[in-house]
């Protein structure tokens, strides 16, 4: 049996360490994505990291460092096709770029783990999780910077996340609150986020809406109606 000639205990244990590290680190990255109800969640990120580690480790064991570097190049290009599958264009907006970038980083974590650099893989995992969590408040703060000048028009949107079965009533509730605040809704979109969660996005077209109005509206939706995620953003189009 060829297995008896190719099996060596210490290289096998080295492979086990690489696989376990890639699986755990990919799971940590995917857990945050799963919590946010993104398209590529826990299992996807774990499998991407594990698969990358397997290919790199295989190349290293069969051909050494030079062959593993060649395989890493193929992993980098190959994961691009997988990332493209989660990017969706909705009208003028493009969604899924952050999820695709996270998959790319998960592949990098797996490749590093497959190269037996476990400490570096842990470090990169920490930075990926920080980027997806700690930078979120900064993004919200930048999006909430008031627009000045009458010549600049902005498209405002208010987004809430709710259970799929409550999408209809919550959409009516959001529309009612916006119209009461004299902010008519131009378009209402319902976007699936997993099997039982949806995002309801109300798009408005106006100029220089007071930040305090939108802040008060989202705070009211969160505190009075118990909506766990209510936010708004503005996009300029000169």
Automatic annotation (TrEMBL):
GO biological process: methylation
Entry keywords, A to Z: Cell inner membrane, Cell membrane, Membrane, Methyltransferase, Transferase, Transmembrane, Transmembrane helix
Membrane topology according to the record: Multi-pass membrane protein
Cell compartment(s), UniProt: Cell inner membrane; Cell membrane
Gene Ontology molecular-function annotations: methyltransferase activity
Domain annotation MgtC-like C-terminal: ranges: 156-232
Task of the protein: Virulence factor required for growth in low Mg(2+) medium and for intramacrophage survival. May be involved in regulating membrane potential by activating Na(+)/K(+)-ATPase.
Entry similarity comment: Belongs to the MgtC/SapB family.
The protein, known as: Protein MgtC
């Amino acid at each position: 049996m060829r297995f008896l000639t190719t099996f060596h205990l210490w290289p096998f244990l080295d492979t086990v360490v690489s696989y376990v590290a890639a699986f755990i680190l990919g799971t940590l990255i995917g857990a945050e994505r799963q919590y946010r109800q993104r398209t590529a969640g826990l299992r996807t990120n774990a499998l991407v990291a594990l698969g990358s580690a397997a290919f790199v480790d295989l190349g290293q064991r069969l051909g050494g460092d030079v062959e593993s570097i060649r395989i890493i190049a193929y992993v980098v290009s190959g994961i691009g096709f997988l990332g493209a599958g989660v990017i969706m264009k909705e009208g003028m907006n493009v969604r899924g770029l952050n999820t695709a970038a996270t998959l790319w980083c998960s592949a990098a974590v797996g490749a590093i783990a497959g190269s037996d650099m476990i400490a570096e893989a842990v470090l990169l995992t920490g930075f990926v999780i920080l980027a997806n969590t700690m930078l979120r408040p900064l993004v919200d703060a930048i999006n909430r910077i008031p627009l000045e000048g009458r010549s600049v028009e902005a498209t405002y949107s208010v987004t809430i996340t709710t259970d799929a079965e409550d999408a209809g009533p919550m959409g009516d509730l959001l529309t009612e609150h916006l119209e009461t605040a004299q902010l008519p809704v131009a378009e209402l979109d319902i976007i699936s986020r997993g099997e039982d969660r949806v995002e309801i996005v109300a798009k408005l077209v106006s100029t220089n809406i007071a930040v305090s109005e939108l802040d008060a509206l989202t705070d009211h939706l969160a505190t009075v109606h118990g909506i766990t995620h209510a936010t708004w953003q503005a996009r300029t189009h000169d």
